[in-house]
Design goal:
Length: about 270
């Protein structure tokens, strides 16, 4: 595994999210927060503290309004802005409770998964909102539900995972990982990997190498033919978080490469 590959992914992610798109502003802060929590050596080596601080300040510029028919990704970006600024003790304007409830209900009619996540974020911010039941989800949507349970339970990888029921979610994710990779669904596969890592679960290094093999020459990770700017940035972000944890285990000197054998040794050390 190459530290240079993670460096390219970071550089490309920062380029992709250097826009005024609300989802990019949100994803930039979320990703840097996760890197700080999940791959602290990588975070410090790249001196990302000021970049995270600027990203958190950028969240303050997002509107706190939730008009009817607001796209789900914009609703999420605005709730993310409040959620992550609150995690860092930063001030937020009051949320319009009735409008947030209406926005969550409207999104839920289109997607139970998206509605569930928005309802959980709103609830964490003190909004009393009905949370849809996602337990009937299947396939990739179920994977996203389970990974985001882990993210919410850990304040997005910041806190230890001590929630009752976490083992059931993690067992399910471990079984889903080879399936998601087999289907080329690297965005949810990367989320599974960093959730398992965060919980101290072993991840077969071959899965990491299969993920790494999907990187484009320009540093991006893309798991579909979509030109959607948010999807490409998000996929690059989650793959970066998953791989950066192990890039810190690469030996100093030389080309900075970690072979499969080296990664296996690092993984074995984590199990002791």
């Amino acid at each position: 595994m190459s530290r240079a590959a993670c460096d390219r992914a970071l550089e490309r992610f920062l380029e992709l999210t250097n826009t005024t798109l609300e989802a990019h502003i949100s994803d930039r802060a979320v990703t840097l927060h996760c890197l700080r929590a999940h791959a602290p050596e990588f975070f410090e080596a790249h001196q990302l503290g000021p970049t995270l601080d600027a990203a958190l300040e950028g969240l303050a510029a997002l509107p706190s309004t939730f008009p009817a028919d607001l796209p789900w990704e914009v609703v999420m970006a605005r709730l993310d802005a409040h959620y992550f600024r609150a995690l860092y003790g930063l001030e937020n304007p009051p949320l319009p409770v009735a409008d947030v409830r209406a926005a969550v209900a409207g999104v839920t009619e289109q997607s139970v998964l998206a509605g569930w996540l928005l309802a959980e974020l709103a609830g964490a911010l003190g909004v009393d909102v009905e949370v849809p039941d996602p337990s009937g989800l299947t396939g990739m949507e179920r994977t996203y539900w389970r990974t985001h349970q882990i993210l919410l339970w850990t304040s997005y990888l910041r806190d230890p995972l001590e929630t009752e029921g976490a083992d059931e979610a993690l067992d399910e994710l471990a079984l889903a990982l080879p399936v998601r990779l087999a289907w080329g669904e690297i965005d949810p596969a990367a989320e599974i990997i960093f959730c398992l890592q965060a919980a101290g679960r072993a991840v077969d290094p071959e899965f990491l190498e299969r993920l790494l093999a999907e990187q484009r020459p320009d540093g991006r990770f893309v798991d579909s033919d979509s030109d959607d700017a948010r999807e490409q940035a998000h996929c690059t972000a989650v793959c970066l978080i998953a791989l950066a944890r192990f890039s810190s285990d690469a030996p100093e000197g030389g080309a900075g490469e970690t072979t499969l054998a080296t990664v296996r040794s690092a993984e074995a050390a984590r199990r002791v």
